[in-house]
Structure formats: C-alpha cells, structure tokens
Amino acid sequence: MITLYEFPLSGNCHKVRLLLSLLNLDYRSIQVNGNEKQQKSAEFIKLNPFGQVPVLTDGNFTIRDSQAILVYLAKKYDEDHWLSTDAEGLAEIVSWLSTASNEVALGPNRLRLHYKFGRAIDVEAAQQTTLVLFDILEQHLKKNNWLATGRVTIADVAIYPYVALASEGKFNLQPYTAIGRWMDRIKALPGYVSMPGMS
Ligand SMILES: N[C@@H](CCC(=O)N[C@@H](CS)C(=O)NCC(=O)O)C(=O)O
Description:
By secondary structure, the protein is α+β, with helices and mostly antiparallel strands. It has helices spanning 11-22, 42-45, 66-82, 87-117, 123-143, 154-164, 177-187; strands at 2-6, 28-31, 55-58, 61-64. The protein has a four-stranded mixed beta sheet, with helices on one face. Helix 4 (87-117) packs antiparallel against helix 5. The longest helix has 31 residues, at 87-117. It is globular and about 45 Å long. Residues 7, 10, 12, 39, 51-54, 65-67, 101 line the site of glutathione.
C-alpha cells in the first residue's frame, strides 16, 4: 500500500499526486496539519528528519523529497515511459529535477509563499530568479514539446506545479506562449489532476 503524507496546497505534493494519478496507482493520502506544525512532530521526524512534506511510504520503504519520490515511482512502476534507461536521457531528466529543487524553489515557489501565505522573502531576488527561469523554459519549449528526451517524463511533472501556480505569486504567465502550450499538453495527459490556484 502506498501512502502519501502531504499538504493539500503544496506544489511539491501536487507533483507526487500528479504522477500517482498518471501512473494510475492507488494510494492513501494523509493530510499533515501544517497549522499545527505536525510535520515537525517527533513522530513525523521519524519519516523525514527535515520535517517536511511530501513523504511517501510504499510497504516498508519510506522516501522523502518530491524529486526523489518521482524517481522512485517512475523506476518502480513504469521505467520506460517516465524515466530513461540510457545515460544521456537520465542525465537530461536529472538536470530538470535539479532545476525544480533550485531555481523553481527559489523563484516561483518563494513568490507564491510570500504573496499567498505571507512568508517574508527577498522579493526582488525571487522575481529575478523567476524571470531567468521562465525565459530559459520559454526558449527551450519553443524548440521542444517536452523538457527532456523528446517525450513526456518526470522532468515535466517536477517543473509543472510551481509554473502553473505562478500567478499566485503575482507573476504574469501571459507572455510565455510556449510555456502555455506545454502546460496545455500536460493538462491533456490521461490521468491529469489539477489543484486550486493552477492556471
Ligand atoms: N525539497 C523538498 C522541499 C519540501 C518542502 O519545501 N516542503 C514544504 C511544503 S511544499 C514543507 O513541508 N514546509 C513546511 C516546513 O518546512 O515546515 C521537496 O521537494 O520535497
């Protein structure tokens, strides 16, 4: 039995929900109470010492971090489609997983944390990171339908949520037409699920 510990409004949790649904996998969702800081409780710290969601358990196996969870699910349940078996393809995918952990987290994710949830951040730095990120994505997606390997992979799933939630961080997606068409392709995938705030 797969269990996902999550916050309903987290983009990092959404990417896991999205892949579970695209893979048509059954799972149990456990909502962690962020207002009560349940993710920092002694019980939860046993699952993830960083005290953060998402965490996924599959039988006796426990894994933290949304990117690592995507790798696990893709490798375990459908390697050929969502991951890559060759060195070049795998490296391309991992380069975008790293972008999700770095530029996406420091850019659109932070802007949303600030404008939607009131987190104090360096707004100018987050806006600059977001502008650079969106420009790189736009140029890449003008020439490619998908982020890595020429077909849909977990690279797209990892980057998608905070791009689709960018307007909640007061970032205007309108000028980015290639990103818009990529988001439409993701929304058309069988099993696609959305979440509140996604454009
Ligand atoms: N690199 C981690 C980041 C996880 C993360 O930032 N989780 C947030 C929700 S999106 C969280 O649990 N925040 C509550 C906290 O840090 O106490 C991942 O990709 O899963």
